[in-house]
Amino acid sequence: MVSKIKTGSQAVSSGHSKEALLELLNVRPSTLGWDAVVVYNRGRANALMMQQYIQKLTAENYLQPIDGEINSESGSNLKFFGIQLGIPRLSFENASLTDSRARVTLPIIGGLAILKSEPVGGYKGIHSIMRPNGAAGPRLWLDVTLKDAPGGVDEVGSVKIDLSDMNDFDTDLFSDPVSIINAREFFETEFKKHPELQVYTLGTLSQQADSTLKPKSFSVHTQAAPGAKLRSAPNYGDGAVVLFVTLEGGVNGGIPASNSDFEYMIPDDEEGRRFSSAVLVSNRVFLTTLLRTQLESVLPGMIFTVKNPTDADGNPLHSFLEITGGEISKADYKYVNQGYFSDHIITATNPMLTLNLTGAAFRAENNTCTFTWHNDLEKPMHFWNTRGADNDSEYDASVYFSMAINLTSVPSVNPQDGIISFEQAEITDIQIGVTTKLNEYAQNTEKFHNHLRQVIYDHLFAFTKKITLPDIDTFLLRNLLFPDLNSMVLTDVAVPGDLAVFGNVNPSMTSFVISPESPVLNTGGIRKFVTDPVIGGVEWSCRALPGDTTGPIGSFSANGDGTYTAPSADVMAGREAQQVIVTAKGTVNGLEVSSAALVSIVNNTISVNPLFQVASAGLSLPFTAGTLDDRKLIWAMKDPGQNGQVIPDQEGRGASYTAPLHPEPPAPVTMFVLDVIQVTDDENNMGQAHVLVINKTLGGQVEVDLTNATSGTAQLQFMKQYDSGPIAVPHQRLKWTLLAGGGSVDAVGLYLEPEQQLPGFAIVTCAFEREPDFPGAPIPVDYGYTVLPLPLGAYPDLGRAYS
Prior knowledge:
The chain is mainly β. It has 5 domains: 300 residues, no CATH class; 173 residues; 83 residues; 88 residues, Immunoglobulin-like (Sandwich), CATH 2.60.40; 102 residues. Helices cover 11% and strands 45% of the residues. It is built from 8 helices and 52 strands. Strands 2, 3, 4, 5, 6, 7, 10, 38, 40, 43 and 44 form an 11-stranded mixed β-sheet that branches. β26 and β27 form a beta hairpin. It starts with 17 loop residues before the first helix and ends in a 13-residue tail after the last strand. The N terminus is likely disordered.
């Protein structure tokens, strides 16, 4: 289940462009019978989780570092010291619309992990050391189910993830299945100690705001972006949370099949960065609930009937509204102008000019709302002719209207208030034909006809000039809620049949977030933080995680521009990694608000894990390397003459090391071979890992006494197993050697760490020369080794590593 998910800038979604998506949605209804579909992508879901993670770090009942151990196969165990789990990242390579599965990646960003095992022979020793940090380190992968949890008062429910309720688990802490099972049990137990800290909310549907779009229930699902299930794809793991929503008075729709053609609703415009969310309001709800409500308010007495057409195979097409009863009228119509002669004044009147609208229809199609009316009407008109010196005359005659109206209204959205409006295009003269048989006004007849047209423009179709849908704003901004004052900010709207709204889940008008949200810096690194949206007068501060009273935190520049400088390597005082909470306080629309981000500081430009590993001859081992960017890395052996080999993977972020084989006889076989793996970049930065190759059976075990670790010393003792049990070998019979690392070891096995406290380790070996079995026989030598993580006093209970 191990996966490689990009956790920085979001990969290309590889979906459709907005225009291509709208073309597909134009064919038929796309909400599967649900009243609305709400979609938001991985990037926004992860941003919401990140904000909640920081809150959990700073709460009174905060996410504490983990101590403990995991038993693995063959009696080995992995011991944790101050392990800090990082920001959970959601991905969708395992998603299927039939359910709500997703994958959560949890990096281990701090602490120490020591694996103790039996590398060769029957003596346990430290097998590997890992110092996780924000750039490189082991990870946990959890398969979880997004759940529609019950909500509080006035809430339909919330979308939640509970990390303790995992469906599957994997980690690169181990390679064997038994150890991975034990690791799952360990972390499940740890998570359940404080279950409230493992729950993340990704959205809530509320009923607080009274609206025609009042949610009643929803079903949560997950969807992988097109192509995102392929491990080699650039968008591997991309996808979205999909909420199928039923409104008050509605009924639930269907659930898409695993091979459904339900489109990925978030357009990939601007390489997937323009939109992060979408809402699709069903064609039926748009017409019957939103549009009809507005039309009935401006056209009282009109009867609107929903028509539901189907294609030749009986599949539903987009519904439309047809007027099946009612008319619009103009009272006391009157037109006065000259006839053929200048003294002939003709007055045309109709006490109630009415136009029956039966057959007219409103359709949502081709990204517009279209009013169509095709009809021929005959209307009576009374003419009074004042003919100068001649007698006046009057008579009735018919005026013929030929209606061929296709009136389109283009939707737009105001991002400030979220109100969606439909602006009407102009009606052309050609669309309204007017004829009379008697040509009463002679040369002024066209003016008469234009006057009739203008009356229709001004009085009969004024209702279509602008149609607003305020309830969309209510639904999205007051009933569709996101944690920490985030809301869906609308930017684009279209009506391909259903009502499609696109935008982003962003901070509301009364909040802001910090960018970047979770950077990783080298010691002494500089990064400028900004707020989104940008506000003035921000007060910046930084602090260590709760419980860390001595950790370095860096500083902000005095000018208040958000420029942060990470602590130097000297100030880090032996820490491999450090987490710092950055806080910005400011005023938004008169409200005092704040936001936080998490900074990870690492000591090395290139981090390699494990730092130390034990191997037998010919054994292959995996290693990983990380940097703060995508720079190219080069893997090599420091001493290739020792015949160890390292082969990097295609991305250069991992490699396989193979220990050297025993030399061919009669060449001697040395007890220990120390191989050093070097990882470099083109700026001469280097990360290293050490492999201790053990070529023979160990003859004893080195015990470590860390009673005086805070003073920088460790007492070592070589233990030899006899029939009566292990016995300490006198120091005068031993030879202690510092094989790698700083510090020193004396003749009585007292190790003294270096004065400068830097993260690392020391490898110490021991040789016990025994008496030969008979004169002339080889001198038997028993060997042992140990590894000491530095600084010795970094973890008060480091002695557990040797128990």
